[in-house]
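REQUEST FORM: STRUCTURE PREDICTION
Request ID: SP-0412
Submitted by: Lab K.M.
Chain count: 1
Length (residues): 297
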Amino acid sequence: MTITPTKAVPGGQEVPELSVPEREPRGPRVWVRRAGWAVADSTVVARRYLAHLVYKPDEVIGTLMIPVLAVLLFGFVFGEAMGAAMGVGGEDYRDFLMPGLFALTMAFGIGNTTIAVVTDVGRGVVDRFRTLPMAPSALLVGRGMADVVSAVVDLVVLVGMGLLIGWQWHNGPVAALAALGLLLLLRLAFTWIGIYLGLLVRSPEAAMKFFSLVFPLAMVAETFVPTEVIPGWLAPVAEWNPLSATVLACRELFGNTTVVGESWVAQNALLMAVVWPLVLLAVFVPLALRRYRKLSS
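STATUS: Completed
RESULT:
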C-alpha cells in the first residue's frame, strides 16, 4: 500500500502534498540500456521487412535480373570484343567483370530501398510505427539492417553464378571475405542514400526517376571497362566514383584481372573503398534522421 504525504490546512482538513517527480537518472548504464532497446527495436523492424521478402520474392528477383543479364551480355555476347579492347581474352574479361557486377548490384539496391520507404510513408506505416513505444530511429535503422541482409543473399546468388561461369577468387578465403565486407559496406552507404530519398520524394513514380540517376553512376566507373578506355575528359569522374574504389579494391582482394590507373585514388583503392562509404554514411544518416523527425512533427 502506498501512503501519500499530506499537510494540514486551515479548517482541519488534510490535502495531499504535490510531489516533484524525480529526474530520470543519467549515466553510462542508462545510455547502454537505451542503446540496447534501440538495437532490439531495430531488429524487430528488420525482421518485418525480411518477412515481406519471403512473401514477395519478386523484389529479390527483380534486383538480380540486371546483373544476371549483364553477366550473360557482357560476359559472353560482348565479352570478346570488350576483352580485345583491353588486350585480354574473353575468359580473363569475365574474371575482370564479376567484381564490377557485384558492386553494381549493391548500387542498384538504392531503387528498392527508396521505393520501399516512400511506399511505407504513403501507406501510413511510418505513422503507425510512430505511435508505438519504440526508439525513434528504429524504423530507419531496421530498414538498413534488412537491406544489408538482403544484399548478403544477392551476393551469394551472384558468387554462385560467377563460379558457374568460371570466375573464382585467387587470394584465399580471408581476402575474399574482406572483399565481400567492402561490398556490404558500400551497400549500407547506398541504403541510407535510398532511405533519405524515400523520405524526400512523395511517390514511387518520383522514386523511379531518382533511381535512373544510378545508371550513369554505375556506367561511368570501373564496372565494365578500366578508366584507361574511357574518354580523357570523363576519366577523372570515373576514377573518383565511389563505385570504382570498391570495384578496384575487390579485384585486388579477389586476385582477379585488373588494370590499375596511375591516379592517387586508383593507387589507394583499398583505402578509398573504406573512406567513401564512411563519408556517405556521415552525410546521409544525419540527413535521413533529420528528414524523418520533420516528417514526424
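NOTES: Residues 90-122 form the longest helix (33 residues).
Reviewed by: T.R.
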